[in-house]
């Protein structure tokens, strides 16, 4: 009985493909010394020749073989194309990789490393502009805008664990802290989010209906800053289940998380923008916002070279 064959590797993007192991049939054909593919060895999500999303077949370089083209034929083909030699070398570092460099209208042919470096520099320049915008936004939030001073809102949930099936139970209550821009506590209610008879409800948890109305009165004249909208999900569900009003003012709620991400402006070696770590308390949120506002915005040239 034949042993079962292992499934071929599939890579979700080109950056997940190990360097120097795989290539498409086109990449093999356009190598400095062209090769022809062996058996299909893997697949990757990418784009076809028309720029459409497609699943591309990959072949192992060590299982490919030389094409029938002789050295004389290769030399003749190169001599017919004056730009061929220039297209085979990297315009930045001068490397002459086996595989054809990446064509670039603005920067010429680039090897994978130089192309990646330029992409990272472009991402960093984008982050630089976003950081300047984040500083302006933070300063505006700390100022009284149209008679609506800032309120920092943070929620600590009282969890009740999980059901025997592993489903997370609705939090028993929510401790809601509201700070003013001066750091003073404006309100700090503990609102029950489940039935008063449910297990795990703190003794000092208040009735959500009058409690939510009182909180709404405090927040009604404020511009409210939260960490992220997702933090409100359990509060919204719990208050709705207890037939309580929604206390946050409509269209006057802002997120600090994306503002912080823009201010930090970090770009990973992969070109991603990592999510910032949550401050975890209202006073730390205010401190973070003050740091952002106190930053000297970077000088932004009109035509920054990327």
Description:
This protein has 306 residues and is α/β, with parallel strands linked by helices. Helices cover 30% and strands 18% of the residues. It has helices spanning 25-29, 71-79, 84-88, 112-142, 208-219, 233-241, 257-264, 282-293, and strands at 10-11, 22-23, 35-36, 40-47, 53-60, 65-66, 150-158, 173-180, 185-187, 190-192, 223-226, 253-255. The strands form 3 sheets. Strands 7, 8, 9, 10, 11 and 12 form a 6-stranded mixed beta sheet that branches. A 4-stranded mixed beta sheet has the order 1-4-5-2. It has a two-stranded antiparallel sheet with strand order 3-6.
**Percent range for helical residues?**
25-40%
Range of strand content? 15-25%
Total beta-strand segments: 12
Shape type? elongated
Largest sheet: 6 strands, mixed
Taking Cα atoms only, what radius of gyration do you get, to the nearest Å? 29 Å
CATH topology of the largest domain: Nucleotidyltransferase, domain 5
Whole-number count of domains:
2
Question: Spans with pLDDT under 50 lasting ≥5 residues?
Answer: 302-306
Look at the helices and sheets and give the structural class. Answer: alpha/beta
- Quote the distance from N terminus to C terminus: 59 Å
Corresponding CATH superfamily of the largest domain: Ribonuclease H-like superfamily/Ribonuclease H
**Broad CATH class of the largest domain:** Alpha Beta
Q: Based on the coordinates given, report the CATH architecture of the largest domain.
A: 2-Layer Sandwich
Averaged pLDDT, please? Answer: 89
């Amino acid at each position: 009985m034949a042993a079962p064959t292992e499934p071929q590797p599939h890579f979700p993007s080109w950056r997940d493909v190990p360097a120097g192991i795989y290539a498409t049939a086109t990449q093999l054909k356009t190598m400095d010394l062209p090769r022809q593919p062996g058996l299909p060895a893997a697949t990757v999500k990418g784009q076809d020749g028309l720029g459409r999303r497609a699943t591309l077949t990959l072949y192992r370089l060590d299982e490919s073989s030389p094409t029938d083209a002789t050295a004389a034929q290769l030399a003749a083909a190169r001599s017919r194309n004056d730009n061929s030699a220039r297209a085979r070398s990297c315009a930045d570092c001068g490397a002459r990789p086996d595989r054809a460099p990446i064509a670039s209208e603005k920067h010429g042919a680039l090897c994978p490393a130089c192309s990646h470096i330029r992409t990272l520099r472009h991402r960093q320049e984008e982050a630089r502009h976003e950081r300047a915008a984040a500083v302006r936004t933070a300063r505006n939030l700390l100022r009284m805008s149209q008679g609506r001073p800032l309120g920092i809102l943070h929620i600590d949930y009282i969890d009740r664990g999980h059901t025997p099936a592993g489903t997370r139970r609705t939090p028993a209550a929510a401790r809601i802290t509201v700070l003013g821009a001066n750091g003073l506590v404006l309100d700090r209610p503990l609102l029950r989010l489940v039935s008063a008879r449910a297990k795990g409800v703190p003794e000092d948890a208040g009735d959500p209906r009058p409690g939510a109305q009182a909180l709404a009165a405090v927040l009604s004249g404020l511009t409210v800053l939260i960490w992220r909208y997702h933090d409100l999900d359990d509060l919204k569900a719990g208050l709705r289940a207890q037939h309580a009003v929604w206390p946050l003012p409509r269209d006057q709620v802002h997120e600090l998380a994306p503002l912080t991400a823009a201010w930090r402006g970090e770009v990973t070696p992969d070109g991603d923008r990592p999510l910032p770590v949550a401050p975890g308390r209202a006073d730390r949120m205010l401190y973070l916002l003050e740091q952002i506002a106190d930053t000297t915005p970077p000088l932004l040239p009109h035509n920054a070279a990327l």
